[in-house]
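# step 3/5: fold
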Amino acid sequence: MSDAPKIEQIEGQLNAAGLRLAIVASRFNGFLVEPLLQGALDALRRMGAPAESVTVVRCPGAFEIPAVARRCARSGRYDAIICLGVVIRGATPHFDYVAGEAAKGIAQVAMEADVPVVFGVLTTDTVEQAIERAGTKAGNKGADAAEAAVELVSLYRQLGQCHGQ
């Protein structure tokens, strides 16, 4: 028998029952964002979130996601915010600015918010890569983001640092 101290482990659970969730989804590249959104909604349903507990907030593009996510987080209405969008590299530096600012902005909101704010923005070189990540070969990154959000709510609550505890 070992006398080694037992290490405490804290893990989040994938149970969305009773959670209020916001999904901030960009309209730009909507034909790719829509499958991400549907993947997130399906994952939330499978984790026990009723439809009425989820609010979808549409914004123009990925660049605007951080500001909308910040308003959702500050509203006190949601236990987590899931950010979904798609930015595809083109022939100009526009991709670098939009993708970089979306990532930086969402990360900043996540660090400042008392609730989880999850990055589900695809930043790909091609449309084909985005399609693969929106529900085909590489799974659905919208579903992955929804699972991460639910797990983080549980984890934050166990750590005593989540809104609504």
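# step 4/5: annotate
The chain has a mean pLDDT of 94.
# step 5/5: archive (pending)
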